[in-house]
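Retry 2 of 3 after timeout on previous attempt. Resubmitting structure tokens to design endpoint.
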């Protein structure tokens, strides 16, 4: 598996040689790209010798292409050949460029061109790190799903204590290992996942919702991206942080979820609908807070659009995976849903069981397939369950070819 290590110009750049060796010990093939300023702190020769690859330093270096072969555009070729892009150390300057799409050198152009997970480990002076502009840039990059490994507190090169030291090399290597599952069996796929509850507003302060925490859907997103899929997560309101390296859309209501799912549907090859979408919403939203009174009041509800059914009618070659949370007639109801919604797989939760389903860290499910197979997956963590569900998708995909 190939890692592109981007090195930028800060004193911590000298640590990139050791970082490279640690990644190689984990069997990663490391290609290095350095900014101009990084070369003032560590030579490209050092990193070329260690990596056994030419170090990329210049956007416009002419390659010695053999006669008869086209000269290609290097940042696009490199972007297409790596499995993960790690920038360590990252300066405040490069964070600013990444956050604002400025592509004026090799590294910043590459950032816009890569389609793989990106991990950034910043290192800088404590005041620079705390500056609102830098923090804004960090938030912006995080919201795009980029994994930012925060710097550590400690003694900084300029002789003061504070937050700004490059995170430990062990922490950075662990993040790389977590971000690259050797299976990569979803490379080339785009998986759209929904998670969490929806909230259907009654008035500015009251709403209807359910007990979904989003944990199942978020763990599916983590597993999907680490197995190589481009991952899009559309989530209702939860207390969870968006997973790293996942394109994230936050929505509130069933209508908003429908809109975001439909917007991202055409570029997806697989859809996994783990969200607990409200089946009903108030007939009307009352724009002012409804006053307390001693009289009885009726809340009139109307059905929300069934997003999964709508997609089932136009799914083409895509793999469509639904979830079902049932309390009675579990398998009969589930089989009916699988048929009626035109699904390829249905993941069934019997939510009467303790310690699984809504808001717990574990799940136990029955997986139903379109061709009538049913198998139980016993209780395990939602992260492990996510891999089981992805394995069932792989099995289904293998049957198709
Ligand atoms: O979020 P957690 O706390 O981790 O809990 C996980 C979970 C229990 C919520 C999850 O695993 C689960 O079972 N999600 C689906 C719950 C549900 O809404 O089931 P349902 O039987 O009502 O819906 C069936 C399917 O249709 C679901 O895939 C749902 O996303 C979809 N649906 C439902 C209604 C609607 N209006 N539009 C839909 O697309």
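Retry 2 succeeded. Sequence:
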């Amino acid at each position: 598996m190939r890692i592109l290590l981007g090195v930028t110009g800060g004193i911590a750049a000298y640590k990139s040689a050791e970082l490279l060796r640690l990644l190689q010990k984990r069997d990663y093939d490391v290609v290095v790209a350095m900014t101009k300023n990084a070369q003032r702190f560590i030579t490209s020769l050092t990193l070329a010798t260690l990596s056994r690859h030419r170090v990329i330093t210049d956007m416009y270096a002419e390659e010695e292409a053999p006669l008869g072969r086209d000269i290609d555009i290097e940042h696009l070729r490199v972007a297409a050949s790596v499995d993960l892009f790690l920038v360590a150390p990252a300066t405040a300057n490069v964070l600013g460029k990444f956050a604002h799409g400025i592509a004026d050198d090799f590294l910043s152009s590459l950032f816009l061109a890569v389609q793989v997970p990106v991990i950034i480990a910043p290192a800088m002076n404590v005041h620079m790190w705390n500056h609102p502009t830098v923090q804004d840039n960090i938030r912006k990059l995080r919201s795009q799903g980029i994994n930012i490994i925060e710097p550590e507190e400690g003694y900084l090169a300029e002789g003061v204590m504070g937050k700004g030291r490059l995170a430990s090399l062990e922490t950075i290597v662990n993040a790389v290992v977590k971000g690259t599952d050797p299976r990569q069996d979803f490379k080339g796929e785009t998986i759209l996942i929904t998670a969490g509850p929806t909230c259907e507003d009654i008035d500015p302060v009251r709403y209807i919702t359910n007990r979904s925490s989003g944990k199942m859907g978020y763990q599916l997103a983590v597993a999907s991206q680490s197995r190589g899929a481009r991952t899009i997560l559309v989530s209702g309101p939860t207390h969870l942080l968006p997973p790293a390296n996942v394109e994230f859309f936050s929505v509130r209501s069933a209508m908003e979820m429908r809109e975001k799912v439909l917007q991202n549907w055409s570029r997806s090859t697989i859809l996994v609908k783990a969200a607990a979408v409200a089946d009903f919403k108030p007939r009307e939203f009352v724009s002012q807070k409804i006053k307390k009174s001693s009289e009885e009041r009726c809340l009139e509800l109307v059905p929300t659009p069934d997003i999964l059914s709508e997609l089932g009618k136009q799914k083409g070659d895509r793999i469509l995976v639904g979830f079902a949370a049932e309390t009675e007639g579990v398998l009969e109801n589930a089989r009916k849903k699988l048929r009626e919604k035109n699904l390829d797989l249905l993941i069934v939760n019997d939510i009467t069981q303790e310690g699984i389903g809504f808001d717990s860290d574990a799940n136990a499910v029955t997986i139903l397939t379109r061709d009538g197979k049913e198998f139980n997956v016993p209780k395990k963590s939602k992260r492990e369950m996510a891999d089981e569900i992805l394995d069932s998708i792989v099995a289904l995909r293998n049957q198709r070819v």
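Attempt log closed. The CA atoms of residues 328 and 350 lie 8 Å apart.
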